[in-house]
Design goal:
alpha+beta; globular
Length: 339
């Protein structure tokens, strides 16, 4: 096993330099086969080994070649998805002075990384130019409960907190039910990840992309800048086009279509490292298209923050030794998030 050190700040610098070098100028619309669609309905209904192996084979192929897929057949109620989008729109329709009361990292609020990010913020991801979106972020783990997050006053936006808490609980449950599929895809037993995700660290981002024409955007500004996620996986809902992901097989940037109630799922750096670079960490960015706002709701899902990840045994051998030392989220990817 490797005994080398890991410089998280250096990795963050390298990731930013790589992102700055990507040519994103000519994305194309998706063609059949560009974006795998994985239906987990039969697996969730039966839980049997045959359906698990079948869906794991599809997932492994997607994660090794392009790093993302459209997830259908999940059990998140459509009504909850509709209600969550409605709640997010209601929040972003609030007067800006109301939202700024909840500004992220404001003095006096003990928990960092939660709350409101106005248009033009240069973090999440950190970039030299501001991201042309506004977002409201909540998170949780073993030590972070709902009351530790910032929330708008119930009198200002009735029902917002209860809706978002219900959605966060449901999507966390779905992410946990995906873990056996990832384990089987990587050739380990189905419960391999259970101990690592006893208290998963998660972040829910509720994002509004105003029309860029209204913001006076520079040519090289984005709704959210090109980046890779720092996650194990990300489950994204989007209400309209605007997400663009790099397809390594085609060596092209692909505009991701919207499938009603489907999640766009991508691998992140945590899973890529854990799997010894066997899985792709998906490059992506987002913009608005046309003169309408766009809303997206990514759920960033990680192992317990201080759990040390040793290279998955099926992902290394004597000819392909581990590239990363045993490391936790807090020691690695949290650097990029400013945790």
């Amino acid at each position: 096993m490797t005994t080398g050190s890991f410089d998280a700040e250096e990795k963050e610098r390298r990731l930013r330099a790589e992102a700055d070098s990507w040519d994103t100028a000519s994305p194309v619309d998706a063609e059949p086969g560009d974006i795998p669609t994985i239906d987990i309905g039969d697996y969730l209904a039966t839980g049997d080994s045959t359906t698990l192996e079948a869906v794991a084979a599809q997932l492994g192929q997607a994660c090794e070649t392009v790093g993302f897929y459209q997830l259908v057949g999940h059990d998140i109620p459509p009504g909850l998805i509709t209600d969550t989008f409605a709640a997010v729109r209601r929040f972003h329709d609030l007067p800006v002075e109301e939202k700024l009361k909840l500004r992220m990292d404001r003095p006096g609020w003990p928990l960092g990384g939660v709350g409101y990010l106005p248009v033009g913020e240069r973090k999440l991801p950190r970039r030299a130019k501001g991201n042309l979106n506004e977002a409201f972020i909540v998170k949780g783990d073993r030590a972070i409960g709902p009351d530790d997050n910032q929330w708008p006053d119930e009198a200002v936006i009735p029902g917002f907190r209860s809706t978002i808490e219900a959605y966060a609980a449901a999507i966390k449950g779905l992410a946990l039910r995906l873990l056996p599929i990832y384990a089987m895809a990587l050739g380990v037993e189905a419960h391999y990840f259970d101990g690592a995700f006893l208290y998963p660290f998660w972040r829910l981002r509720m994002t509004h992309y105003p029309p860029q024409e209204q913001l006076g955007a520079d040519q090289d500004q984005y709704g959210i800048s090109p980046h890779v996620d720092t996650t194990f996986l990300t489950l994204l809902l989007q209400d309209s086009p605007g997400l663009t992901i790099y397809n390594a097989k085609r060596d092209r940037w692909i505009n991701v279509p919207v499938i009603e109630n489907a999640f766009v799922v991508n691998s992140g750096e945590l899973l890529k490292q854990w799997a010894n670079d066997r899985y792709v960490s998906a490059r992506h960015f987002a913009n608005t298209t046309g003169d309408a706002s766009r809303y997206s709701i990514p759920f960033f899902f990680n192992a317990t923050a201080d759990y040390r990840m040793h290279c998955i045994p099926t992902c290394w051998d004597d000819d392909n030794p581990p590239r990363y030392p045993p490391i936790s989220y807090l020691e690695s990817q949290a650097i990029a998030q400013g945790e």
